[in-house]
Amino acid sequence: MSTITPSARRYRTPGLVTPRRGKSRMDPTRNNTAAGLAAWLLALLFASPVLWMILTSFHSETDAATNPPSIAANLTLDAYKEFFGATSGVSPWPPMINSATASIFSTVLVLVLAIPAAYALSIRPVKKWTDVMFFFLSTKMMPVVAAILPLYLFAKTVGALDNIWFLILMYTSMNLPIAVWMMRSFLAEVPVEMLEAAQIDGAGLLLTLRKIIAPVAMPGIAATALICFIFSWNELLLARVLTGVVAGTAPVFLTGFVSSQGLFLAKVCAAAVVISLPVLFAGFAAQDKLVQGLSLGAVK
């Protein structure tokens, strides 16, 4: 009968793995499949209201108003024809053009003002820059409804009611604090060595902003521009109070479909789908820049 000394117990045959009792290894493939399935279910849960809105827009008003709603109802384009003025003669294009004008011009103005301000607060920081950042943040603490009456009285006094350029000015002031905060965090990631090399080469401030900083911070600029565009396009309260027939925007036009008499659900869904398309197209076109911009600075 052979005996095993304690010293011999320390050594095991190479390549031989002794299984542990009571413990089982989790299959990483199974874990990834379960996580992917959970992500798809969560995405469908969040997207289900949008999908239901799109489906309802292709139903007749009678089928859209049934409770519970019928999924297998006949599809029709009557709601979209009504939205584009086939029966009423009211065209949605002037309000949508107004929304596009206000959103694009205000976004450009915000970037023109926010990039130099963020440059001064990040790359060439001014004294007490934290107080400046808090001041920008404090301008967003007052709700818009608290300032809507003074803005209305001011616009009425200077004759700026129902004026698209006054609305552009309001959208610019509304989005500028957010843009400064976002651009400051993006520009803080620009390598200082690149700026020092530009100074050695004799580049001025405008040339440095245009040739050095803008290409490096382009994902952040795209993300900021897209968010400002979305906020301007979706804004309703200022446009509802400060505009009328001439400068009315798409969200204001959308609220006109809600009435106290008759059925309007399919028509409202069709209008919401059409008005949402520019934002969806803009987000799809800038999705790669948006992901890079929002994740900029997350990993050191």
Polypeptide structure, described:
The protein is built from 14 helices and no strands. It is mainly α and 300 residues long. It is globular, with a radius of gyration of 29 Å. It starts with 27 loop residues before the first helix and ends in a 6-residue tail after the last helix.
Short description:
The chain is mostly helical and 300 residues long. It contains 14 helices and no strands. It has helices at 28-57, 61-64, 78-83, 93-122, 129-138, 144-158, 164-187, 192-200, 205-216, 218-234, 237-242, 250-255, 265-285, 287-294.
Give the biggest sheet. none
Tally of contiguous helical segments:
14
The proportion of strand residues reads under 5%
Give the mean pLDDT. 82
Let me know the number of strands. 0
The H/E string reads: HHHHHHHHHHHHHH
| Molecular shape | globular
Going by helix content, strand content and strand pairing, the class is mainly alpha
How would you describe the oligomerization state of the chains in this entry? single chain
In the predicted model, the low-confidence regions spanning at least 5 consecutive residues are: 7-11
Helix content: 55-70%
Termini distance?
Answer: 63 Å
Q: What is Rg?
A: 29 Å
List descriptors.
single chain, mainly alpha
Secondary structure layout plus pairing:
Blueprint: H1 28-57, H2 61-64, H3 78-83, H4 93-122, H5 129-138, H6 144-158, H7 164-187, H8 192-200, H9 205-216, H10 218-234, H11 237-242, H12 250-255, H13 265-285, H14 287-294
Helix pairs in contact: 1-13, 4-7, 4-10, 7-10, 10-14
